[in-house]
Amino acid sequence: MPTPRTTPATTPRTAPAATPPAGHRSPAARAVGAAALLAALALAGCGGASGGTTKGTLGAAESGSASPSGRGSAADSARSAGPVEPAVRGLPGMPPVLDPADVYAADRPNKLSPVVKDFPSRVYVPNTESDTVTVIDPKTYKVLETIRVGVQPQHVVPSWDLKTLWVNNNRGHTLTPIDPRTGKAGKPVEVHDPYNLYFTPNGKYAVVMASLDRELVFRDPHTMKRVKTEPVSCYGVNHADFSLDGRYFIVSCEFSGELLKVDTERMKVVGQQKLPFDGAMPQDVKISPDGKKFYIADMMADGMWVLDGDTFDRPTLLPTGKGTHGLYVGRDSREMYVSNRGEGTVSVFDFTKDRLTKKWRLPDGGSPDMGGVSADGKVLWLSGRYDSEVYAIDTRTGAQLARIPVGNGPHGLAVYPQPGRYSLGHTGIFR
Fold it and tell me: Are 244 and 256 in contact (CB under 8 A)?
């Protein structure tokens, strides 16, 4: 994280308390729901890339076919019923939601987009104090090369269209593009204070988390030309995640212990609250598979805040471990891996049981920070922020598979490629 300024933060209102939403649907229920949805979409001829209404296909009479009995079948009735409303009315231009019960439905093991299926599998590690990116072969656990980038690289971020990896050179005020097909770095693009980088679900804008500038900067996702600047009164905009329908996103402000709710289409902050913990320092943000809850890691509260994003009411704290930092969802949408940087552990949260079920401890300790899950879902990769190393962890047993020396201050590493249709940014949030 960048060094904070001494400017005092504005204290916003605190939302009233509320009861957390109900538990999640079972995997079986999700599967049935998904099958029904896909069947309905198939009958409706759905295949567009927007969140709007899709046109129905021709009825039996119009297409020249009919049921043997002469009476219309159920499929005929469905086809002739006219336009079918989508299950989720997403942000205009956003690819349709595959499963309303699981925002991660596109992230199944090895389900790679045609765009990335031929990219070599690599782990890209930004070293904030060495101004480099270490490139690791995940099959051999060997360092392949070290790329010189700008000053204080914080995160390696996949672009919305999956074609580029952007290195966020926070204090160098540039983004370095890396071609994941060749591994070669391109010409840096000038962008002020790029602590972190996200993309709107419709791919229309890049969103720069300008932490010290106290701004959310909406930019062209390709040229990075500034489109709109949204000043914020909180301090240290940091991480984010988007709602199921993509119409809003939740942002953590680490230096003032606050959360923001931002309207995606209007590019405007519509909610703000102070976390109910003295000295709170919120970090990573992830949405639950069913889209009903947001989880916000807090490295000072030593746990995750559980928030209803729709109501944006006061969240509750679930303790996980000292220095809670990164949140990573498994390939089956059942578990989330929580890195506890201050104690060298990873907690495992089960979405279906709505509780922590396991805690894995790194042998010889460590400082697990940011990272991602391998394409097959079998390995969790995390940077060792204060130990100049990277950890590979077996997601079935919690065993350490490798401990790889890298540069100084490794931070937001990206495992790439990963399954998914498009990227929302950070070290890899795919849908």
Answer: no
d(CA 194, CA 307): 26
Q: How far apart are CA 387 and CA 400, in angstroms?
A: 15
Whether 172 and 133 have beta carbons less than 8 Å apart is answered as: no
Amino acid at 131: D
pLDDT mean over 229-253: 98
Q: pTM of the prediction?
A: 0.82
Q: For residue 410, what is the DSSP state?
A: B
Dist. CA 224–CA 212, nearest whole Å:
19
Per-residue pLDDT tens over the stretch 299-320: 999 999 999 999 999 999 999 9
Nearest to 321 by CA among 305, 304, 335: 304
Is 4's pLDDT higher than 50? no
- Identify the helix (H) or strand (E) that includes residue 30: helix 27-43
The DSSP line for 335-403 is EEEEEETTTTEEEEEETTTTEEEEEEE-TT---EEEEEE-TTS-EEEEEETTTTEEEEEETTT--EEEE
Q: How far is CA 308 from CA 134, 312, 392, in A?
A: 38, 6, 32
Residue 123's H or E segment, with its range, is: strand 122-127
